Amino acid sequence: MIEMIGDLIAGIMGLIRKGELKKASKELSDVYRQMLREDSSFFSAIPAEELTDTLLQQHNYTNGHLEILAELFNAEAELKLAQGNKTGSLEYSLKSLMLFEFIGREQKTFSFEREEKIDGIRKRIENLQGE
Predict the structure, then answer these.
(1) What sign results for the dihedral spanned by CA atoms 68, 1, 112, 19?
(2) Is the dihedral of CA 42, 46, 52, 56 positive or negative?
(3) How many domains does the chain divide into?
(4) Can you give the pLDDT at residue 1?
(5) Residue-number span of the structural domain to which 75 is assigned
(6) Label partner for 16 (CA 20 to 30 A): which of 64, 75, 77, 84?
(7) Inter-residue contact 4 to 71 (CB < 8 Å)
(8) Three-state secondary structure along the chain?
């Protein structure tokens, strides 16, 4: 499932780079529904500090679900940035970073790919906070 989400996210990121923001937004919404059975507003309404506890304990999500959500939040942050919504991009970036870091601690395995994403998200956050 994680590999499939990677392909979907890569397609969405490609649409964002091409400037096809409406299509990217629709596809992103579809992925939330298909993979997590909720729309993005459900997840964005949960405060960052409560995200993992709420989803793991109250909604029976797994670390795999959280990894998918981290990927979706990262794509959402890129989309918001492309739309000129820096506040939204920062919010999604912070949540994505928190989830990726949580997954890294829980899985106790090192992943170069995850670390690269974490570094990229941190740089985006620094740039957004510096503006």
Answers:
(1) negative
(2) negative
(3) 1
(4) 63
(5) 2-130
(6) 64
(7) no
(8) CHHHHHHHHHHHHHHHHHCCHHHHHHHHHHHHHHHHCCCHHHHHCCCHHHHHHHHHHHCCCCHHHHHHHHHHHHHHHHHHHHCCCHHHHHHHHHHHHHHHHHHHHHHCCCCHHHHHHHHHHHHHHHHHHHC
Tokens of 80: 């918001």
For position 71, what pLDDT does the model report?
Answer: 94
**pTM of structure:** 0.92
| Mean pLDDT in residue range 104-116 | 86
Phi-psi domain of 60 (left: phi exceeds 0; alpha: psi -120 through 50; beta: other) = left
Confidence of residue 80 (pLDDT cuts 50, 70, 90): very high
With tokens 């928190």, the residue in question is 98
What b/e readout covers 82-117, taking b as 16+ CB neighbours within 10 angstroms? beeeeebbbbbbbbbbbbbebbeeeeeeeeeebeeb
Average confidence (pLDDT) over 13-34: 95
Place of tokens 């459900």: 42
